[in-house]
Amino acid sequence: MRGTHTTRTALRARILTTLLALLALQLGSLVAPAWACGCGAMIPDEDRRIGVDREESAVHWDGRNETVVMRFRVHGDALRAAWIMPVPSRADVTLGDPELFDEIEELAAPERRVRTYFWPREDDWPFTAGRGDGASAGAAPGGSVGVVGRERLGPFDVARLTATDPDALGDWLRANGFELPDRLTPELAPYVERKWEYVAVRLAPEKRGERLYGELTPLRISFASPELVYPMRLSRLAATPQTLGLSILAAHRMEPRTAIGGERPEVTFSGRLDRPEGAVAALTGGAPVHLTVLEQRFPVPSRISGDHVLRTVADTPYRQVVYRDRILTAGDVPVWLPVTGGGAAAVLTAVFLTVRARRRRVPSPA
Length: 366
Prior knowledge:
single chain; alpha+beta; 9-stranded mixed sheet; 5-stranded antiparallel sheet; 7 helices
């Protein structure tokens, strides 16, 4: 009796320890800074936190010019935040069309098929009653920094900058209300060396005192580029695993040259759009394009080694298929019943097997 009590006490202690550890982990995730995934870094006000659950971008490239439309879904308690994106040349910034992502999602939706099977499974009658036919779904300003322009776009305060010194760029951002962490400055050095420019964005809710939360209005950033590039280096500062959704509209199917430290990019759709419509046509100019949709996870963002550079590959079409399994029926009757000469024997067999299995679980008397 005493041994049983000791065992129960030890078990309760282990459960309590586990619960406390989980609680501490959860509280730590709420307190720790959550640097956003993305082409840039999301920088909240001091003593505030902001994180990005998912970054979605639609990119159009015609061989000479690139347009990136970005949409973020954010969480946290920040009332304002700043974001910076390096670009290879002078950029134009406007608001994007929120409908664009809905249209692309519809174009790239997976095909749904029904897949039938003959013999009943464990969730089908007569093995399990009351579950229907068993169908289941699948799966500081200075000479080193130049201000090209600054404008207000809806909830965004946008500054387009040049810089020849990453430290001077950091000083300018801090002097103008952009709280830049010290560890971000070294990450800007490769872009300064390549003479890239920058789009700095201050985000603020349209209603005073409102938090930055949910899906933000998309931003549309256009610039000249001889190759299709998607800046990702600053994402290495993210503190939590990140997911990137990238929809590419170009003359041909495009895929990243390397995984840049993340999991292998997965193509979820590839197809030709001969007559784009709506927001897609507005982005592409109405010309025929090939749509490639990519998904990529970055479980350890600190391993991100650079920017995505995409290359042309064969225009192989692809669409995901989601299956819904269903037992083969004729009307409402499973086909296996009449084929096997009636269901009575099958029912008796199922009952016999169930009773025998239950008897095996009952321990023999001492």
